[in-house]
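User: Hey, my collaborator sent me this sequence without any context and asked if I could get a structure. I don't really work with proteins. Can you help?
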Amino acid sequence: MTSEPFFRGSGLAEVAANGVVRLPSGFLAALGARSDGGAIVLALHPRDACVTGTDCGGARRQAARIARLRRIEEEACLATERHHRRARREYGLAEDSTIDGEGQVLLPALLRRRAGIGRFALFVGTGDEFELWDPERARLQGGALADIAGFRLAEAHTEGDGG
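Assistant: No problem. I've predicted the 3D structure and written it out in structure-token form, which is a compact way to encode the shape of the chain:
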């Protein structure tokens, strides 16, 4: 059992033209409790069209998992190309960033483009990580993700109307 808080819940935040976005308070609190110095690692999700975020400890756990998978594949005499594809995705499409004093972080342009994140980012907690989605793209996924996106978009629309 871990003593670190999980990333849970969801939130919608506006993304500035330069890619700066304010983290929802629950995610900011979890990162503060999990990380040292406000460091954050953002990466392209391995399967879905979204960005993942975690603290540096989470990134170290991911690196250990990748190393374990490589050893297993090598012992099974599997082609190492699988490892190289995984490593490029996990490391080449990942960026370190820092949370500023206002609770904001820069979403790198490449990650925003690959995930289709435009004016808004939908934050979704997934335990040791969180996901950032374009809310309209999230709605197309169906299921709970569509429900979350629909709720957060309706909530933002209501707040925008002053009600």
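In plain terms: Helices lie at 25-34, 56-75, 81-92, 109-115, 135-139, 143-160. You can pass these tokens on to your collaborator as they are.
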